[in-house]
Write a structure and sequence with these properties.
By secondary structure, the protein is an all-alpha fold. 72% of the residues lie in helices and 0% in strands. The N and C termini lie far apart (53 Å).
């Protein structure tokens, strides 16, 4: 899969590397902006209780 993506990117090797890094940064930014907050609301990770003994 990565080889197919590498072949689709235009330009010489250094341009492909910069484009791949930029695409990865965009994906990470989208995850932190929209996906992770939506999942955090659904999972209710911070509603914890401690049983006293």
């Amino acid at each position: 899969m990565y080889a197919a993506l590498w072949r689709l990117l235009p330009g010489p090797r250094w341009v492909k590397a910069l484009t791949a890094v930029a695409l990865a940064a965009v994906v990470v930014a989208c995850l932190f902006t929209w996906v992770f907050p939506a999942v955090a609301e659904t999972l209710e990770l911070f509603d914890t209780t401690v049983a006293g003994g």
